[in-house]
Design brief:
The complex is a heterotrimer of chains A (about 230), B (about 150) and C (about 400). Chain A is mainly alpha-helical. Chain A contains 10 helices and 4 strands, in the order H-E-E-H-H-H-H-H-H-E-E-H-H-H. A two-stranded antiparallel sheet of chain A has the order 1-2. In chain A, strands 3-4 form a two-stranded antiparallel ribbon. With about 150 residues, chain B is mainly α. The chains are: A mainly alpha (about 230), B mainly alpha (about 150), C alpha/beta (about 400). The interface between A and C is medium-sized, with 22 and 21 residues. Chain B: One of its GO terms (biological process) is mitochondrial translation.
Chain lengths: ~230, ~150, ~400
């Protein structure tokens, strides 16, 4: 029903369009004929090579977001994390905080790295804050989550598998939460850097939160068949 | 309360025949309507307030030319077996994920398959195309078939 | 008049050096083949110079890095002088390195060629925020220390105006106000920089200083006793600073030593207000601070065997007067007259060679970790993002 209605509406009214997943988006600024912009240099080259650029030549394109960048230092997961850190839309502040966090990570690791003499010891120490961050996020991703489901007047916490998207969300949420639990005298970037470093080593509070959730899932495994579509 | 002292025949008389259907004039009090299974009244010193309700055929005794989509709802209970294996492994290894990588992989693979299958099914449903010799059909497909070949009158 | 003539000669030198600089930047080095893909190449090695004595640095070393000895850093800049962000980096790198740059080289060259029998030459480094004035000053200070100058180094005079620890009415002069703890900290800085030199020079006090009925400094005591006394008696620390400066000027005029005055943010001395409030809620003008008067007396032309090196910095002015970085604007009429004549030395952003060298140094020390940062595209992006400004470059590198 929705599909038919959506297609009709899309044709009739420009403010209805479909997003990537095929769901209807009411009051979108663009009609569904508009395609999303490609702003990465490599992808543009790919498009030109594959000949798809020729097809797109006369297709109208949506405007790019101001967070879209073709910088070689850009990382989409870091940008996502910046949005997690952000409060009340203060993006420049949150970006500054994330950058400070990376600086702290580098300072901590470089002190170790420059102190060691032999190349073997140096190769063990990871100094790239981006890699440490990715590892930390990966380590905090849960396998399962619990969802409250009401059966016979009782709400059960029912374990269920988690989608990839949701697992990244939970992971970064826990990391930011762990970074914010600190003494008043410690700055957020310092605490965040410590948390990321320990999460990269599979330790720390964010990883603990994930393990707690796994244990809860295990304890509630009897309710697993209550799962509901 | 008006037909409290009426006999069954009288009750029937107070029903209005409207086409094939029968309408009642007053709301039914189901708790006091029937006799006991032994055919007698309750020994409360009272008669039942109402006589049993006679059969009436509200809907015609024929199949419709459509089905509702209720039975088609997703059964979201996939991967229970994999989950239990995973739980067993996790409990054995004190929730260290690296020791259960095999179980985790199989669980995630199962879930991914399930999600893909679900997505595919949804897409097919949305399209509503008929698949020849399909054993299981969505309500949309069934409806399409029923539209082509309606129930004989 | 003689000083003016000297200054004129120096200015013509500046033009020559700038030409040299342009020539270098055009010739540059050949770029590597461009590659958009991140390749795990071996880390480039920073171009360094083994010459650690700044007096031997020549224009051939421009853009290369030289390392200060840890002991030297502790002795000369242990109580301030190197900005904190830079110091943090040095700590992480386990070395304190500076890039050899033109402004410092020019200044060192001019100092070497100065006629010390005339009143002290004044060299003022100026430039926009973050171009490396203070780091150049560190380089020059190192040269002066190696060259046997008695250092009168003021790292952050604007602190005494803005974020002073404690200000009290002077014990000796009712018109003046003393910084107690700040003066003690400066005396410690002075002592740490000059102890060894003053021992060999054997400078002595020429006056009898009476502090209280019991405490006094006799004639003929080593000069460091004044500093020691000031450190132990914070109440008289500001007066000790005045006394030391007076003695040093006298000694220099008698050819017994040569004195280098190094002031970072010299325009701070000529600001009209401080943040210290009097009882009638008016803000105290900084020239009523005892230590400000002492250092201002060094800027007069009534002594010889000296040199004055300073930076003129936007950030040392108060907020409403930071629109331009040019000396006349930042110094105001008062400072302009007090420093006249001085030799302006512009400090500018990195050129291509220096930019490349800075990126190489950061890669060498592991401060740039992204696999793209060594590539040609990455270098171009870093140069464009930082606009070749050293401080901005340091800022943008913090998360890369």
């Amino acid at each position: 029903m929705l599909g038919l209605r959506g297609t009709l509406l899309c044709r009739l009214l420009p403010e209805y369009s479909r997003d990537a997943s095929g769901a209807l988006r009411a009051y979108s600024m663009y009609p569904p004929t508009y395609i999303k912009p490609v702003y990465q240099k490599e992808k543009l080259e790919e498009l030109i090579e594959s000949g798809e650029a020729k097809e797109r030549e006369f297709t109208p394109v949506r405007a790019a977001y101001n967070s879209h960048t073709s910088s070689v230092f850009h990382d989409s997961l870091v940008r996502k994390f910046t949005n997690h850190v952000m409060k009340t839309g203060q993006k420049s502040l949150s970006r500054e905080l994330v950058e400070q966090t990376f600086r702290e990570i580098k300072l901590i690791q470089l002190r170790k790295w420059n102190q060691t003499q032999t190349p073997e010891e140096k190769s063990v120490i990871e100094c790239d804050p981006n890699k440490i961050f990715h590892k930390a996020v990966e380590n905090c991703r849960p396998l399962l989550i619990v969802s409250p489901i009401k059966r016979g007047g009782v709400t059960y916490q029912v374990p269920m598998p988690v989608t990839e998207h949701r697992s990244y969300f939970e992971s970064m949420r826990w990391l930011v939460k762990a970074g914010r639990e600190k003494e008043r005298t410690i700055h957020f970037p310092q605490q965040m850097a410590r948390e990321l470093l320990s999460a990269a080593k599979n330790e720390g509070r964010a990883v603990k939160m994930k393990q707690d959730l796994h244990q809860l899932c295990e304890a509630n495994k009897a309710y697993a068949h209550y799962r509901w579509g | 309360m008006t037909n409290q002292h009426l006999l069954p025949e009288e009750v029937n008389r107070r029903q209005i025949h409207y086409g094939k259907f029968i309408m009642h004039l007053s709301p039914l009090m189901l708790g006091t309507m029937y006799r006991l299974p032994n055919g007698k009244f309750r020994k409360t010193g009272r008669r039942p307030s109402r006589w049993p309700f006679p059969y009436n055929n509200v809907l015609p005794l024929a199949l419709r030319n459509e089905v509702s989509g209720k039975g088609d709802k997703q059964q979201n209970l996939a991967c229970l077996h994999e989950m239990s294996i995973l739980f067993a492994c996790m409990k054995k290894n004190d929730f260290v994920q690296s020791l259960c990588s095999k179980e985790i992989n199989s669980f995630q693979k199962c879930h991914l398959n399930f999600l893909q299958a679900q997505k595919l099914k949804k897409e097919q449903e949305r399209e509503g195309n008929l698949v020849p010799y399909a054993r299981n059909m969505s309500h949309r497909q069934v409806n399409q078939l029923l539209k082509q070949y309606p129930q004989p009158k | 008049m003689a000083v003016r003539a000297v200054a004129g000669r120096f200015i013509s030198c500046i033009h020559n050096n700038e030409l040299l600089l342009c020539h270098r930047s055009i010739v540059g080095r050949t770029r590597r083949s461009s590659s958009t893909q991140a390749v795990e190449e071996p880390r480039p090695i920073a171009s360094r110079t083994v010459i650690t004595n700044p007096s031997h640095h020549t224009s051939d070393h421009i853009g290369s890095w030289y390392t200060l000895e840890p002991n030297t850093v502790k002795r000369l800049f242990g109580h301030g002088g190197i900005p904190k962000p830079y110091r943090t980096l040095c700590d992480a790198f386990f070395e304190s390195s500076l890039m050899v740059r033109q402004p410092a080289l020019s200044t060192i060259d001019y100092i070497k060629r100065s006629n010390l029998n005339l009143p002290p030459n004044k060299f003022m480094l100026y430039g926009n925020n973050g171009v490396g004035k203070t780091i150049s000053l560190v380089h020059i200070t190192h040269f002066l220390a190696e060259d046997g100058w008695v250092l009168v180094h003021v790292p952050v005079p604007s602190q005494w105006r803005r974020v002073f620890k404690e200000v009290v009415p002077s014990a000796t002069n009712p018109d003046q106000y003393d910084h107690t703890r700040d003066s003690v900290m400066w005396l410690q800085h002075f002592r740490s920089q000059n102890t060894e030199l003053l021992k060999s020079l054997q400078l002595e006090t020429s006056e009898h200083y009476t502090w209280t009925q019991r405490e006094a400094t006799e004639v003929g005591q080593p000069l460091m006793t004044l500093a020691d006394f000031g450190i132990s008696r914070a109440r008289f620390a500001s007066d000790c600073v005045t006394a030391i400066i007076k003695e040093l000027k006298q000694c220099a005029s008698q050819d017994r030593c040569k004195v280098a005055v190094v002031i970072d943010g010299i325009n701070s001395l000529f600001c009209p207000t401080s943040r210290y409030r009097l009882e009638d809620l008016t803000y105290l003008p900084p020239d009523r601070f005892t230590i400000f008067r002492a250092f201002l007396s060094l800027l007069q032309s009534d002594w010889k065997n000296g040199v004055i090196v300073g930076t003129i910095d936007k950030r040392d002015n108060e907020g409403e007067r930071r629109k331009s970085y040019l000396p006349r604007y930042l110094l105001r009429q008062k400072g302009w007259e007090a420093l006249d004549p001085f030799i302006p030395i512009p400090v500018v952003d990195y050129d291509e060679v220096e930019m490349r060298s800075a990126i190489n140094y950061y890669l060498d020390r592991g401060w740039l970790q992204s696999p793209h940062s060594g590539s040609d595209v990455g270098r171009k992006e870093l140069a464009a993002l930082s606009n070749h400004n050293p401080l901005t470059f340091m800022e943008i590198c913090k998360s890369i």
